[in-house]
Design a protein that fits this description.
CATH superfamily of chain A: Umud Fragment, subunit A
InterPro entries (chain B): IMP2, LexA/Signal_pep-like_sf, Pept_S26A_signal_pept_1, Pept_S26A_signal_pept_1_Lys-AS, Peptidase_S26
Order of helices and strands of chain B: HEHEHEEEEEHEEE
CATH class of chain B: Mainly Beta
GO molecular function (chain B): endopeptidase activity; serine-type endopeptidase activity
Pfam families (chain B): Peptidase_S26 (PF10502)
Membrane topology (chain B): Single-pass membrane protein
Oligomer: heterodimer
CATH architecture of chain B: Ribbon
Number of strands of chain B: 10
Number of helices of chain A: 2
Number of domains of chain A: 1
Number of domains of chain B: 1
CATH class of chain A: Mainly Beta
GO biological process, one term (chain B): signal peptide processing
CATH topology of chain B: Umud Fragment, subunit A
Strand content of chain A: 25-35%
Chain lengths: ~130, ~170
């Protein structure tokens, strides 16, 4: 039911993983901003979906980690990183992600009960974008 | 004969609307083709006045998305890599892992995993992979199978690789 409806989507692979709510209203006008956690199809493998946080939007400049380069995010793309930098396959490996690959935005954790709550928009420290 | 039949009709139209939306979203839809990048395959009228009044309408099927069964030569609809609000219709020239010769250059390019190389049938007037590079397969929205309008051009859209653009 495409962009005009929302879908309760439980994404899990084992009983110890969190279940999160993914809303798709954001796709109607593509209203994303930095700090949102999004679900997107992998640019390198269209059969896989990933969950990462948007660090920069089109036109922003970011400092590429472990390098002295600044990179300008191309039009229509965003830069995503996992909150756990040490253990995350993200834009640092596969580069900026086209916004057309985004499938929805994570808004809440719904399971397990002790972790139920809103997923807040936030930029990790030290990863400011201009 | 008042409220009950009105409510019934209302529910029927809501249900009909939901079914139509689901079909259009998941299985097949009809879209109009703008522009000349697929000239001769679509929008082949050479009269510029007539052309603007008579864009071809094509049937886009989405069953192919379930298993991502595309091959070289298919005409696909995809979101533009540089502008997620736009959709384009082009032909797949090469699939992941294949090598192609980049036009107007001596380079050979290997198509990265998960991407495809698309070009319009009308090379002179087409914004395609020669400008924005390989397209992620995740951006594909469907495959064009038939022209449904105008009536004199109704027919199947065949899979074909343009001459001289072989890939291996």
């Amino acid at each position: 039911m495409g962009n005009a409806s929302f879908l309760w989507n439980a994404m899990t692979k084992s009983i110890t993983d969190d279940y999160v709510l993914v809303e798709k209203f954001c796709l109607a006008n593509y209203k994303f901003t930095d700090g949102d956690v999004i679900v997107f199809r992998s640019p390198n493998n269209h059969k896989e979906k990933h969950i990462k946080r948007i660090i920069a939007m089109p036109g922003d400049w970011i400092k590429v980690p472990h390098s002295y380069d600044m990179l300008k995010i191309p039009e229509g793309h965003c830069w995503v990183e996992g909150d756990n930098s040490a253990s995350s396959l993200d834009s640092r490996s596969f580069g900026p992600v086209p916004l057309g690959l985004v499938q929805g935005r994570v808004t809440h954790i719904v399971w397990p009960p002790q972790r139920v709550g809103q997923v807040r928009r936030s930029i990790p420290e030290g990863r400011f974008s201009l | 004969m008042g409220t009950p039949s009105f409510l019934w009709n209302f529910m029927k139209s809501i249900t009909g609307g939901l079914i139509a939306l689901t079909i259009s979203d998941r299985y097949a839809s009809i879209v109009s083709v703008h522009g000349l990048s697929m000239h001769h395959t679509f929008n082949s009228s050479t009269n510029s006045v007539l052309r603007s009044l008579s864009d071809d309408y094509v049937l886009v099927e989405k069953f192919c998305l379930a298993n991502y069964k595309f091959t070289g030569g298919d005409v696909i609809v995809f979101r533009s890599p540089n502008n997620h609000k736009e959709k384009h219709i082009k032909r797949i020239i090469a699939m992941p892992g294949e090598w192609i010769k980049v036009p107007h250059s001596h380079d050979m390019l290997k198509i990265p995993e998960g991407h495809c190389w698309v070009e319009g049938d009308n090379s002179a007037s087409s914004l395609d992979s020669r400008s924005f590079g390989p397209v992620s397969l995740g951006l594909v929205q469907g495959k064009v199978t038939h022209i449904v309008w105008p009536p004199q051009r109704v027919g199947q859209v065949r899979r074909s690789i343009p001459e001289g653009r072989f890939s291996f």
